[in-house]
């Protein structure tokens, strides 16, 4: 997701939920510990790393005091995302092109011209670059 | 230099590192505006790390943070809430998580002391600039907490995060609106998706 964010910003596109989910579906299973995004329609990125394991024991909490709720909760006081693990997350299919807004379809046309299997790691390392688009394309 | 033994064997070390118990501000590195008050300590862009032991009683922490903020408005102040740090192994196992996959249900975090997160908080940006000081707080987990656990008895809502989200992937809290919308759409918590995916 983060690579998609950087890629879009560098290309002058607007990342959105449905644009991202045009490229990815999920098939959660109880036997696998974590949910993965599975490529659909186009293989935008390779894996961040071939093996990525140390993360499992590296967690901590972000507590949300009352005065900070606005960052995490919407106007109806619903969390903007599930704060806690969902027991059985449903499988989700990739969004079809027809479900995208006209603006998203314009951005999609640009994304379709990009090569497959971009390496996300160097891309993400550009985040700190003051001139993002030159760092990505240059 | 800061690689003191961490992880599961950190109990005694932690007790030595921290003199105070709950409620004390144990470590406070302050960047000076003049740059001369502390010999050898780099100033200017350094951030403040505030370890506080009061877990969910907000007022004392908030006051401390505000006082520091008033004295140096340019510095980042991140309070690490260590109310649950390093507690003993005989905490009860939380029940009701049989549905969760094996690893997230069984693996504890290696961050058991405020210092374990000090480096991360110091070197990487956890909260984006829009987040006002103290409005979101980094909190250490208790020994029996697992990443798949729910709110339980906690007074404040919270969510788990992996350190790699910050030092590897460059995310900040709050996440981008569209990323939060993806999580809502696929009905997964931030730590429920594989960070490699």
TrEMBL record, chain B:
Protein name per UniProt: Uncharacterized protein
Lineage: Eukaryota, Viridiplantae, Streptophyta, Embryophyta, Tracheophyta
